[in-house]
Amino acid sequence: MTDNKKLEIKGLTKIYSGKTVLDKVSFDVKSGEFLSILGPSGCGKTTILRLLIGLSEPTAGEILFEGKDIASLPPSKRQMGIVFQNYALFQNMTVFENIRYALKFDPEKKARANEIAQQLIDQLGLAEHRDKKPHKLSGGQQQRVAIARTLAMNPQIILLDEPLSALDVATRLTLRAELKRIQSQFKTTMIYITHDQEEAFSLSDRILVMDEGKVVQIDTPERIIASPANEYVQDFVIKNLKLKIEALQKYVG
Questions:
Q1: What pTM was computed for the model?
Q2: pLDDT at residue 179 tops 80
């Protein structure tokens, strides 16, 4: 990870029907960083993702990509890709066709669409599933296809909206390691939305902790543990982590 700022968020605000969902949120994301946005349901973390990718417009604030404001650009011009919790795969297409699909609309990648799709299938361990349709795949396999499809477009930043929450524990653990491997291999900047403290601490270079539309703390996992910003971080983050550890200690010693 470098100190170069890939993304800068300044005073990002979103108001729905008179309710402030995001309240002057500011943070930056470094090039090659894995940043998790951690918070309970309804805290505004998914709203940040929607604003970053261009699925919603901010009420106020700036979204700077390498110093340029992209808040008014369409999603296709933001150099970001997104992986959803529900995979969002085309059910009538095979694994290969799903990964290749978006490349057909990119003039620069269209000629190499088959090559790029096959390369990602091999890299993500999907070769034996190449010609299967999504309903023939497990949840973990479908999520790998969704990740491969996003990587095919070679985005500068990948946004992940609670991508592991629908999977069983064993598959989640496997895909956690896979995400870190992918980040290292492709040198991609990742922003990861989650409500799971353990997940955030196991994956992240830094964690942004949210509560009620505001940034409460952003720091490395080690510094958050050592110096929680306030009682909310102490309770929501550290206390919950300790409870999980204590619940297991009587079994593992």
A1: 0.91
A2: yes
